[in-house]
Amino acid sequence: MKKALIHDWYYVNGGAEKVIHSFNKIWDDFDHFALVDFLKEDDRDYILNGKSVNTSFVQNLPTAKSNHRKFLQLFPYAIEQFDLSEYDLVLSSSASIAKGVLTNQNQLHICYCHSPMRYAWDLYHQYLNASSFGIIKRIYAKRTLHKIRMWDVLNSNRVDLFIANSHYIKGRIKKIYNRDAEVIYPPVDVNQFQLQKKKHDYYFTASRMVPYKKIELIVRAFNNLPNKKLIVAGDGPEYKKIKAIAKSNIHLTGFLDTAELKTYMADAKAFVFAAEEDFGIIPVEAQACGTPVIAYNKGGVRETVINRKTGLLFNHQTEKSIIDAISEFETLELDPVTIRQNAMRFSKERFEKEIGDYVNEQHKNFIAHKKSLHQSY
Questions:
Q1: CA atoms of 74 and 58, how far apart (whole Å)
Q2: What are phi and psi of 365, to 5 degrees?
Q3: 151-178 pLDDT, tens digit each
Q4: Is 254 left (phi over 0), alpha (psi -120 to 50) or beta?
Q5: For helices 167-177 and 135-155, what crossing angle results, to 10°?
């Protein structure tokens, strides 16, 4: 069985790339495809076992390395240029464009969907409002995203089977594409995080500092809690703005290496998370340390945090809601062992077994169906 694995793009080692790492542990004979590939070599070794990636013409466009998303209007054309006709199984890993690859009736195309294209659908207005586009660029962006939405719905029919990374994303797939999906939670390397029962007197959050992660909101909430210490890890476009507004009870560390991040996370009295995420790997990593999570009650975190048992969920993305949640949290007594046990439900080993069994079973069914059709002719 010849297998192709197509991913949107490779440039960082994020949550979606950890899924790719597990795919390559299950099946080591994929040929790899993506719009662009700008991975560092150590990341390539981890994610792709050092393998090269077949890329599109976007790879060679000026400034693609620094900002490939500026070529969004070219993505549908670029993804359709890949000729995968020789492959029996096509597995796409898609939060954007990869699922739009062309296949035929003799191939099984299974899509692991991290999310329908967020900037074209549920983040559309937020994306436009957060941009500094002038009127001409704004009109152009609206027109481009309108076309992308139409193409995105059309290409959903190219997928034979959808796998969603959470029930939240399963609902979005149904809403946008009118397709059903199997839910298989993504892999979290929970065994890399150690249980820490004794906690220090600070709250912790960590993220890339971009608007939808809501780090600024968390910082503004703690500005009103001068007796509560908050440590903020991460960098990104909003770092300078957030650092400028943070009061003395808030410490911004900037980028942390993995070891430092684990230490801060394990020692924290709680991890604060205000984003609406499709799944959210880092709240599970926090729980793997026995650290409770205070999180916005929307998205995948509703499936990973048990309210008032492994953390506390708040209902609004507002400073007041976070402040009230901190106050309520401090009245709770949560057990670090129970919190870690909850995180173990999302282990890498569980994911690799579930996804391996599902794909192999569906391919076997596909072959049997093809054979029965052939015999009936």
A1: 8
A2: -65, -40
A3: 889 889 999 999 999 999 999 999 999 9
A4: left
A5: 100
